[in-house]
Amino acid sequence: MEILPLQSNMMGHLVKVYNQAVKPIPYCYPVNRDDFARELEPALGGEASEDRRDEAVYVAVENRRLAGFVHAAIGPPRPGKDLEEGLIRFLWYRPGMREAGEKLLDAAEAHCASRGAAAVSVLSQKHRYSFYMMKAAYLSDVLGHVISLLGMRGYVRNQGEVFLKMPEFTIAEPGPLLDDLPVEVEHTGGRGRLPGVTIRVAPEEKEIGICENVSAGEFSRDRLAQEWIFTTWLGVDETYRQLGLGRWLLQRALWEAQRIGFRHAAISTGWENYR
Predict the structure, then answer these.
(1) DSSP the chain
(2) Verdict on whether the full-model pTM lies above 0.70
(3) Which residues contact residue 38 at a Cβ distance below 8 angstroms, ignoring those fewer than 6 apart?
(4) For residue range 127-139, what is the model confidence (pLDDT) as tens digits?
(5) d(Cα 9, Cα 3) in Å, to the nearest integer?
């Protein structure tokens, strides 16, 4: 088993391994070589990110076969902390090849420690790959063997997200809003084939409720991703809560999404956001 630093001629093999790794993960779609290479470019000496430094990718090879890879970096300090944080942006190895996983994790931890990191975070939202699931994603529980290895090495689960889906949704147009409050509908363009949808209620220019939604095409060029709309934010001013405004905003947003061509919807929330 060899652990090698990333070389540009490995990129084609690496993107195939990544696509194999994420295939069973919901809302993950195949990425093309150019988009994948762009994300890993800082590890080959390319332009660094504004909020990361010293990125490195290590590849495990056994019998000339790629067994896994890890992407390490140094990020800014956590709030209230002085020392920078070590990051593992992605880690995967072939199931059953725990030796590869252990050696990759050793390499990533050594990389971070040698640069003064006080702790290491794995797949945090802020530093996720732009094409890995959607904006709110963390390490998927589908990658159970990776989670098991991290647990054996003393990593603890910190933050998490629960995803809910509504495929082939059909939404009736909601009735009039309470007190005939003014409603703003905004379509926001981006990488997706269909635009994002924002519904805002702001009487007298004071926003009291908003529902923001983006196309999953923001995160993937794949055809299937273009049919999903993802709710990134739903908020109601405290004074107007428990009046049904949040339910109305979400229904209005999904009705608009349906009207312009979306077929499936998804939403997420923090796994400890019981309210």
Answers:
(1) -EEEE--GGGHHHHHHHHHHHHTTSTT-----HHHHHHHHGGGGT-PPPTT-EEEEEEEEEETTEEEEEEEEEEEPPPTT-SS-EEEEEEEEE-TT-HHHHHHHHHHHHHHHHTTT-S-EEES-GGGS-TTSS-TT--S-TT-HHHHHHHHHTT------EEEEEETT---PPP-PPGGG--EEEEEE-SSSSS-EEEEEE-GGG---EEEEEEEGGGT---TGGGGEEEEEEEEE-GGGTTSSHHHHHHHHHHHHHHHHT--EEEEEEETT---
(2) yes
(3) none
(4) 999 999 998 999 9
(5) 16
CA distance 101 to 92: 7
- pLDDT bracket for residue 182 (50, 70, 90): confident
